Structure formats: C-alpha cells, structure tokens
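Quick start: what a row looks like.
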Amino acid sequence: MTAKPIRYDCSRCPGYCCSYPRIEVKDADLRRLAKHFSLTVEEAGRKFTRFYDDDGTPERILRHRKDTVYGSICRFFDTTERRCTVYAARPAVCRQYPNGSRCGYYEFIQFERKHQDDPDFIPSA
C-alpha cells in the first residue's frame, strides 16, 4: 500500500490546530517535554500543563497564552513567527494531526487566500 501524498503545508498556516483549547499531554509526552527542557517530569507538569475535568475524568492539557489571531493558543507557539517552538518534543496528538493526507483548515485558508488575492491572508477570529 502506498501512502497518500501530503496535501498541506503547516509552515503556511497560522497555527489553527495549536489554538485547540484542549491539547492532550500523555505521560510519554510529559517525559519528552521534561527531557527537552532539562526538567523533572513533575516540574514540566507544573510549568507546562494543567488538568481539565469536564466529566469526572481529569485530562492533562497544555497551558495556553493570549493570541491576537485566535484569542488563545498553545504556550509553546511563537505568536510572531507563527510556529511551534518545541516541534521535536511536541505531544503525540500534535504529531498525529491532522490524521491523514489532508487538512481541512489548510484547504480553507488556501481558498480564502486565493479569493482575497492575498497569499498571507489570515481569517480573523
């Protein structure tokens, strides 16, 4: 079976997936982040994550920071360069996104940029 060609370019996106309010961090992800920053797992957990509990099942998620495009974005996202600052140490959910050869947001933004006749157009929130 041949892999389908990738039809998106994350470097041309303003970080839509990084604005998701819940970016899950599993134990392996936390260990990877701790190692990346030369911290203990406990220090990395306190510094970079928080717990979200909507239904009695706590979920460890990445902390966010303010963003002019989306309002809130992953704390590791460089809001000037519009890129991930911990790409090599990013969580598994980020590594797997968008779970296929296509990204709906990338297709949307490419359509908008074409029709706005602006190759850098970013839809405002």
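That is the whole record. Residues 13 and 47 are 27 Å apart (CA to CA). The mean pLDDT is 92.
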